[in-house]
Amino acid sequence: MPPPNPPSDPPIPSSILILGAGVFGLSTALSLSHHPSFRSTRLTLVDRFATPHAATSSVDSSRLVRADYADPAYAALGAAANAFWKGSEWGADGRYRQSGLCLLAEKGGGRGEGYVRGSLENVTRGKREREREREGEGVRVLDGREEVRRFYEGSLGGDVGEWGYVNWESGWVDAEKVMRWARKRVEDEGRVECLTGEVTELLYTGDGARMLGAKLASGEEVRAELTVVAMGAWSGRVVDLRGRASATGQILAYVDLNEEQQRKFANVPVPLNLTRGMFVVPSSQGHLKIARHGFGYANPVRIPHPDPRKRRQADGITVSLPRTTIEDPGFWAPREAEQACRETLRRMVPELAERPFSKTRLCWYCDTPKGDYLITYHPDFEGLFLATGGSGHGFKMLPVLGDKIVDCVLRQPPEEFKHKWCWSDSQPEDFLWTDDASRGGPQGMILDAEMKKGSKL
Ligand SMILES: Cc1cc2nc3c(=O)[nH]c(=O)nc-3n(C[C@H](O)[C@H](O)[C@H](O)COP(=O)(O)OP(=O)(O)OC[C@H]3O[C@@H](n4cnc5c(N)ncnc54)[C@H](O)[C@@H]3O)c2cc1C
């Protein structure tokens, strides 16, 4: 008889429950279902929605795909993901478009300039200085407002920034299509049981020390040896993440394009101006999208303490959680946000300057203090793992993220991320503002206060 397998370290759980089927949850489910160590593990995925839903962070007409990061570790991860979008089924059937990305800042040492410099260094590292731009590849520096203006002459036609570079190897994906495809893949493979239900709380042993699973709004309890919380910006509803992760609402506005404009803008590089915090995705799903990559709005709400041991002592805690069209079907952007989008349109795409917005939306980042993901075991509860903290840049990593998450589940976090994705010391602040040097626009805005100032210009 062959000797039994030696016990693995850490022991492999007999069952894993993943809460949330966004980028973090789906990628975890996919990687676990292929990993030999988990071939006997029962895998369950729960989401509030049976199919990817428009109010969640992973669903939209576009998400940027780039290796353009000032931090070399994320630049390398982005480059690894990029290879999948370009060269595999991940990006097939029109899901990925290699339009190029123009990363820009205003000169003078303001916000964003250092990030653009760092990013340029990372994407050109190992290549000859200012390697020549060829059709569809390479990096080209754009120095001065006039050179940038000439670059966009005949397409966007406006002032997108003063200095930066275009990286022809970056682009964007149709995030909605990708999520539908990835979800179907998980379902078709048949390894993961997919349940639909709203998680209302986590289940603990009587002493509160061990995680048992989750309770759904229907009253059903779903149990597992390991629970992975991947509920994106909603994660703070079931785990006390104060000071570590917090929901911030980011504005998006859309204008419809006619067919001629869709053709004209189809392959125009996305301009992302980090000083202004604004960017435009020229053409996806029949519209042009204006977005702010900023500090966002906090939406503080009072909730019962998620830790059962503290629930009776305190009258709850304040955390920032998303407010979406689910709670507010008639949502329209606060005036301040609509103004920022309108100014961006007038400046970057004068041809569409006064075209009405067909839709506005708040999309919620799960923000962490420095913009690092939060992928780690919870130190206080056995059997609880966190896979969240996308901080506005998680989507592009989808093809490679699940494997990294599984490495962390196996307590082998990637060396370059082990101090970034861990459970760090922090003050339990009600909400936080990410400072990763990539954010622009106003800081410290509370959603309710901005809504009270008015909406609809
Ligand atoms: C405006 C905006 C622009 C962005 N741009 C980019 C970009 O250009 N490039 C990039 O790489 N990244 C970008 N991102 C970031 C990226 O989209 C996110 O990091 C990523 O999608 C987050 O995935 P997630 O799985 O953490 O969250 P989500 O996609 O929000 O998934 C969370 C899931 O949990 C479920 N859930 C929540 N509460 C419950 C509950 N109580 N019970 C059951 N299920 C629940 C939700 O239904 C949802 O499916 C952007 C994000 C936003 C908001």
TrEMBL record:
InterPro entries: FAD-dep_OxRdtase, FAD/NAD-bd_sf, MTOX
Cofactor: FAD
Transmembrane segments: none
UniProt KW keywords: FAD, Flavoprotein, Oxidoreductase
Gene Ontology terms for molecular function: flavin adenine dinucleotide binding; L-pipecolate oxidase activity; proline dehydrogenase activity; sarcosine oxidase activity
Family annotation (Pfam families): DAO (PF01266)
Coiled-coil residues: none
Domain FAD dependent oxidoreductase: 16-406
Family statement drawn from the similarity comment of this UniProt entry: Belongs to the MSOX/MTOX family.
Protein name according to UniProt: FAD dependent oxidoreductase
Organism: Viridothelium virens
